[in-house]
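As promised in the previous annual report, we have extended the structural survey to additional targets. Below is the entry for Phosphatidylinositol phosphate synthase.
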Amino acid sequence: MLGVNARPAVAKVVAPIVPALVRAGVTPDMITITGTVGAVVSAVFLIGSGHLFWGAFAVWMFVMLDMLDGALARARGGGSVFGAVLDSVGDRAADAAIFGALAWWFSGGGDNRLFVLLSLICLVLGVLTSYIKARAEGVGLSCDVGIVERTERLIIVLVGTGFTGLGIPYSLHVALVILVAGSAITVAQRMVAVRRGAAGARLPQSPSAP
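The corresponding structure token record, generated without further manual editing, is:
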């Protein structure tokens, strides 16, 4: 839930930038695409090749654009449905690139097959965390619970990656272990919340074919 609490502070930081972007004709979708492509490229080519500190730093800078596109959309009178979908897809792509790049590094220079597995488990659990919420909201349920949401995942994995790049031993190993445990708990919390929210409700049956 850190992401919700951090938004007001981030909004104050990006507020002075937004009017200039509006005047320049920059759209939220441009920001989303730039942030997604930048994060994916940084993860694949920097983290994946073992440049862990600079990879984590570059990914974080591009991920922060995710905060900017929402503020820009509000300044332009509100976001579009397509923009909301694009933003969600971009988030999933960036997250997958980070953990995929870590798995690639651990399979080569990182030389640790166990953490290849843990990186992939983190990737899958992150997708499940997001999917459960999206599917629940698609049937009219609220699912905002969880101890490790996207902001927490990014902070933990990028801090661990960056510290390892600075030579602090086992930082990334500890981060991935924490993420596996926390993400698994979050998936369980969301499934319990959905079960309680549904309270035995049934999906409407499709009309039978003539």
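Residues 2-198 form a domain with the Four Helix Bundle (Hemerythrin (Met), subunit A) fold (CATH 1.20.120.1760). The chain has a mean pLDDT of 88. These points will be discussed at the next consortium meeting with the crystallography subgroup.
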